[in-house]
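Lab notebook, bench 4. Still working through the backlog of constructs that have no structural model yet. Next entry is a single chain of 257 residues. Request: give me the structure tokens for it.
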Amino acid sequence: MQATLTVLGSGTSMGVPTIGCDCAVCHSRDPRDRRTRPSILIGYNRRQVMIDSTPDFREQALRENIQQLDAVFYTHTHADHILGIDDLRPLTYLHKPGKMPLFATPAACDFMRTMFRYIFEPTYKFGGLPQVEMHPIDGTLELFGARFEPLTVIHGVTPILGFRFGSAAYLTDHSEVPEETIAKLRDLDILFLDALRYKPHPTHSTVEQSLKIVEAVQPKRTFFTHICHDLPHEETNALLPEGVKLAFDGMKLEFEI
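Model written out:
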């Protein structure tokens, strides 16, 4: 089954341009250097599934003219991955039947129910609420005719999720990819990896570290995401090996799901 992957956001938690920064990338005129917080949209079988709802979701949805959303997967509960939940409201009102499903680990479900109590507890009386429902992930999930397989990655010291869906996989916010996950990244057409910058970081992968993963699993196409303002788009792409590029906001890719 053919699918389309849209990069909604390719930036780090502070986005690019970064507030208060005067660096060349933050002042770049290249639109690919404008990076909202990291998220992707997967379209297939007349359905639309998103991974993470960022604080920039409203801007991303307007830019991509998103008029339908059928489900959201969450990698983890850091602010840059969940704070767009309230902006799901208009799309949840259009969702049929019932409430829009949100999928996350059991611990992440509990966190979000607490963080966003006004959404999940029935006592809030002050305006419209996102019509959503949390569903714990306990293994590979069949959704609208496609399989979504959760993949464990390590974000600093914390295990979080990436996902494989058909011939594509999306891993963000990782400083380590365990061997059992590496084994599940074989025979990929598309692989997304965290590559924050060149300089080491305690909770994120570097360009060098992610290139080692590429060498190990040999996907046909690799795209780096969660990019900070240390990496100018055009200059960095010129240094990357064949088949490896930086992602950019609005990028669209075709693949088999």
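Notes after review: The helical segments are 57-63, 79-82, 89-94, 106-115, 117-120, 179-182, 207-217, 233-239. The two ends are 5 Å apart (CA to CA). Flag for follow-up if needed.
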